Each structure stands twice: as structure tokens, then as C-alpha cells.
Amino acid sequence: MHYLVFSVFCSVLVSVLLKLAPRQRLDMPQVVTWNYLVASVLSAVLLQPSLASLQAPHAPWAALLCLAVVLPAIFLMMARAVTRAGIVRSDVAQRLSLLLSLLAAFLVFGETANGWKLAGLGLGLLAILGISVRPRAGAAEPTGGRAWPWLLAVWVGYALVDILLKKVALSGTPSMAALLASFSLAFVLMLALQLWRHLRGIARLQWRNGVGGALLGLLNFGNILFYVRAHQHLPDSPAVVFAGMNIGVVVLGALVGMLGFGERTSVWNRVGLALAVVAIGLIAWGTW
What residues does the EamA domain cover (predicted)? Predict the structure, then answer.
């Protein structure tokens, strides 16, 4: 169970780093770029996935390339959501992306629906409405502007990642090999973008962003590694790991956001938070 706790902590610390990045004058596109270099190296060295499946004729390169584009894009959207809406609401939106993933499983991948999953889906949709309501004092949105478009982008974006990973899994490609390929491609694409920004004078390459990216990469990879290890140590309880991870991130993210950063939440936000926990529990129970 300690692996699950470590995974939850890494996930919430990613949000904390995204929250603190503007205060440290970090350029998020550069931070995200170096994050994928570190995550790629750690994946190759520590996980050592077999890449033979990527050489097969049926290798899902189209889906992997889409992941290479979506993964850094959703990181940047999450960074903006954390800045505009706060950690509390952003983490809930991220975890409730499983609702769209579940809907895709029913409609696209032919998964069987049951009462528990449908109840969780319905409560989850209500939770999304609750967390989208802006707190009256607006303290969670220090930069001004609307938060809900970024929360919506996080919700849809993480669901898209889950759907793409599902397509890769159905092709027979091992998940760790797929992640290594996606991370590596994401780094190459983002590095090309940063070199273009540097040459055009839009954003000069700076060491501080490399340090921030290394830390983000460590947390990003740690989240994945410990989640995989949790499943390996609890092979007969995948629903427990699934629910523990998602509920843990929602609850810890709420505590960190409200107690650590003084983020204000409205009554509707708190109702949405509670509904999110119940919805995740129902979906996990229906998956058991």
C-alpha cells in the first residue's frame, strides 16, 4: 500500500510545482520539455521495457504520435488550470476525466455497463458542474479570467490520454514501451519548439527551466512508477488501487490547496468534491 501512497504524493506534488512555477518565473513550455527528457531516461534505465513490439507491422505509431502531442499539451493546460482555478478544482477535474474514459469504454470499446458504473458516471457529471462554479471571492484565480475553460480542457485532455492508451493496449503494445516511445517523441517535438522560440527571441533557454523540468520529470515518472508497483503488489485488487489513487489525489489535493495555499472554495465546489469521491468509489466498485 505504501507504493500507492507514494504515487498519490507524486501526483499532488506535480500540481504544487505547477502552482509555484509562475512565482519562480519558470517558462512552462521549457519545463515540460525537460520533464520529458528526464522521464524518458528514467523509463529506459529503471523500467527497461522491451521495444520489440514497436518494430512490429501493427505497431500503433499514429496513436503514439498523438500521445506525444497531447501529453505536453495537457501538461500546459493543467499548469494554466492550477494557476486560474487552483489545485483543488484542477485535481478533481483531472481525476474525473475517468468519466469520459468510461463513456468511451461503453460506446467505443464495447465494455459492459452496470448500475454502479452508471451511478458513478451520473454523480461524476454533477461533480464536474459543482467544481466548475467559481468561488465568490475569486482567491483561487489570482490571475483573473475564467477558470472553467481550462478545467474543461483538463477534463477532456486527460480522458483523451486514457483513450489513446487504451487503443495502444488493444494493439498488443506493452504499456511501458508505449510510454517510453511517447515520452521520447514528446521531448523531440517540444525541443524543436523551444529551439524555435529561442531563435525567434520569444523565450530564451535558461538553466532554471531545466532544473524545474528535471524536478517535474522526477515527480511525473515517480507517479507512474509507484502506480505500476502498487498494481504489481496488489494484483488481485485493481479496483482498490484505482479507487485509492483517484480518491487519494482528490482528497490530498484539496487539503494542500486549501491549507497550503489558502484556496477558497464555494459550497458548490465542496459538494462537487464530495460527489467526486463518491463517484470514483462507485465506479471502482462496479469494476471489481
Answer: 3-132
